[in-house]
Amino acid sequence: MEALFLSIKLALCVSAILLACGIPLAYWLANSQWRGKFLLESVVALPLVLPPTVLGFYLLVAMGPRGPLGWLWQSAFGHGLAFTFGGLVIASVIYSAPFAIQPLLFAFENVDRELLAASAVLGAGRLRTFWRVILPLSIPGVITALVFSFAHTIGEFGVVLMVGGNLPGITRTVSIDIYDHVQSLEYAQANHLSLTLLGISFAVLAIVYGMNRKVGRRLWATWAAK
Amino acid sequence: MLSVQIRKELHRANSSPFVLDVSFEIPPGITILFGPSGAGKSTLLDCVAGLTKPGAGRISIDGELLFDSASGANLSPQKRRIAYVFQSLALFPHMNVEANVSYGLANLPPDERRARVEAALAAFHVEELKARKPAAISGGERQRVALARSLVTSPRVLLLDEPLTGLDAKLKSSIIDDLRAWNSAQRIPIVYVTHNREEVDALGERMITIDHGRVIDSGPPQQVLDAPRRKRLAQAAGFENLLQGKVMDLRESDGVMRLRLEASECEIEVPLGYATPGDLVRIAVRAGDILLATERPRGLSARNVLEGRIDSIEQRGTIVVVHVDCGVNFTVHVTPGAARVLELSPERKVWLVLKTHSCHLVAD
User: Closest partner residue to A225 among B86, B135, B153, by Cβ?
Assistant: First the structure.
């Protein structure tokens, strides 16, 4: 159970951070005229194609005492980053980033440009336009981003194993705990945990998709009738 | 007084570069900006509103500069205090009518804001809709809300891009009456873009015609609508086929009108001109612009296919001149090779194909 709560805590942290960082980044990607934008887009999408072990390996190196991240963390907090909960959060944020950025980007890009022009002509600056027009019309995208980053973090294994190791209560997430149980042939415990995870995941997805569909459909109806 | 003097090059996909190059002044009251689709009207409004930057020129209201390429001045759309009603209206779908209308008044104290919103909703007769979302009201009501939302901010200029498209005439004129009533107190310049003759007649105080990015004429609507025939239409010289036709109907959304040629049964489609049904107009078609077929052509983009009989054929150097009787006489030029392959001979049944834009309206 400890592992399960750890996983949920990790997923909540990662979703919150990704939402906070993903919204400005996706907004910038949706509106920037910068020619090198595709480079950043590629970097953001990298975790989709890389095996988690490759990503995990580089993160581990970067977080080690001689890696740039690890060194920074060490000088700021006085302890290393690898094999800590903090390290796990950073690794998971990077690994799950595309799952938050893509839906946000899609939602922002799909807001009718004429609404933005209307907002500008009515005197609203970028920030007001964003809060009053873009964000409310992108709610389904925001919810999708939240769910995807949450679900993806709950389910991850490779990166966690590489970066976090297997410390009970600190980095032993539920997926790793299940793996451990299977390794020691404790199928009953493995099944118990797996079933709980399956149930929770399904419940979260079902609730959110249900809500999203309702919200999405209402927005769509308003939109289409325009 | 809105004063505009701008030049902007536009690069459109699949067509040659287009240059918008206009200069005009708009006094308080409704001025119609008239011209066919693609004439540059919307781009012009975007430049005035500050949504698009002109390549060069200056735009000012009552002497205050909004844009000046010489000094580099370019006020943001937020600071121009120009209201703009888009063709799509661009009402915020997630806000109710009241929130839409008060959107532009963010800087006012709540009491004053409420009072102004009430006044605007009342002026356009939509006060009872204020809790509804745009999707839950009719097209005409949405247009009224869009006008209220724009005018509540006390703009210095109002730009309207075909705002009443798709409404029936009665609804249109009642909205136009409300707009007039509102502006009789404010007296700001209103630029009203349309390519619809009915709206010109209903609104007309003053009009500016633009085409291909240039101002063609300006003045009172009746005078402007009559003048272009002489000014911009093709000269008859150099056309082998000069025909007279009676205008049957105008299809403004397609940019064409149908003519019945002289005393014949032939009906053809020609580019829209400044004419009303029943008018007699003259069109000119080059003999080399007409295609000749010996079987009824199918699957063509050309709109005009006329059936006829060959009267006579004569070879003049490298051109074969074919006279065809379709009820009206046409002269068609083909190459000697084509004449041989098609085995053209007098009395043979043929079909003529005329592209709409090969039919030029000409001066009387």
Answer: B135
Token pair in block for residue A150 = 């949450």
Query: Are B253 and B204 contained in the same domain?
Result: no
Q: Name residues whose C-beta falls within 8 Å of residue B80's C-beta, 6 or more positions apart in sequence.
A: A121, B49, B50, B66, B156
Cβ of B107: how many Cβ atoms within 10 Å? 7
Q: Which class for B79: exposed (0-12), middle (13-18), buried (19 or more C-beta within 10 A)?
A: exposed
Please answer whether residues B287 and B297 qualify as being in contact, where contact means their C-beta atoms are separated by less than 8 angstroms.
no
Is A2-220 in CATH node 3.40.1080.10?
Answer: no
CA distance A162 to chain B (A): 45
Nearest chain A residue to B102 by CA distance is: A122
Q: Which residues of A touch B133 (CB under 8 A)?
A: 222
Q: Is the ipTM of this complex over 0.90?
A: no
Q: Select the residue from B94, B96, B160 to test the A interface by mutation, using most A Cβ atoms within 10 A.
A: B94
Q: Output the DSSP codes for B55-73.
A: SEEEEEETTEEEEETTTTE
Q: What is the pLDDT of residues B46-101, one digit of tens each?
A: 999 999 999 899 999 998 999 998 998 999 999 999 999 998 999 999 999 999 99
| Tally of structural domains, chain B | 2
Q: b vs e for A32-43, b when ≥16 Cβ sit within 10 Å of the residue's Cβ? A: eeeeeeeeeeee
The answer to whether B104 contacts A122, with C-beta atoms less than 8 Å apart, is yes
Integer-rounded Cα radius of gyration of chain B: 26
